[in-house]
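Hi R.,

Here's the chain you asked about this morning:
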Amino acid sequence: MVLWNVETGAESRRILTGIVYAIAFSPDGKTILSGLGTGTSGTLTLWDAATGAEIRRYIGHTSSISSVAFSPDGRTFLSGSLDRSLRLWYVSSGAEAQRIQRSDGVESVALSPDGQFALSGARDGSVSLTNLTTGVEIHSLKGHTDIVRSLAFTPDGHTGVSGSLDGSIIVWNLATGEQLRQFKGHQYPVLSIAISPDGQTVLSTSFDLSGNTTNGELILWNLNTGEIIRRLDTPILNAVFSPDGQTALLSLPGIQQNAAAIWDVQTGQIIKTFQLGADPAWGLAFSPDGAYALLGLGDSTVRL
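And here is the predicted structure, written out as tokens:
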């Protein structure tokens, strides 16, 4: 992992782990959670954000960690794994609070704003809404035909959004389990989606998984209408909004040189670029104050 100072563009800290796809800051910004990706046994690690020291490991998953999310109070976190499970963990003790099995490998998870419900996306294209207190599935959301790589709740918790390798983005009414609308505009598999802090827009990224690193796009959508507000025709692996919603952190793949960038949401311009070297950033996160960008790289590095 690598931590970058957003204002200066200087690298603040680098932590050697394994291949990192899943990363998150705790709500207070004092700790960082990372999950190991492809070819691992599913180790989750909590780090001190100030020193880079390891605090605790969470052992239980038996395959790669695909996604992690902290609860709003920071006392628990959710993890999804290709071992077909999502698990809720107590941060302080490392014990499991809940374990939920899915029919296929879990590629994405999201926690509701109140921390009571989870969305999980699987390799078979299904999305599940689950009550984390009881472990009972509320809705099985059907609509995608390929791996669901990214999920998000709106700030009010009433709506969910999912992005899939089938190229589609679906907006769900979580009270009924029905589709509200489907966004169509990507030509390639959708790798990530993010909802703005005000709940009005959705940012999505796509990339040509056949190996052509010049194909893909970034799209900013109106969540309520499905209208395309802004489009950037360049491949993007991942994108996350800053806490104030004014900018977004992007991961740009390259044939020889990969990069991360800060993108101005209002103007559609890239205003800052961080060069990463031979390996792209699969995991991205902003610190809660927006001062630092956290990147999980494919070369077994977590940068701060």
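One quick note: The two ends are 6 Å apart (CA to CA).

Cheers,
M.
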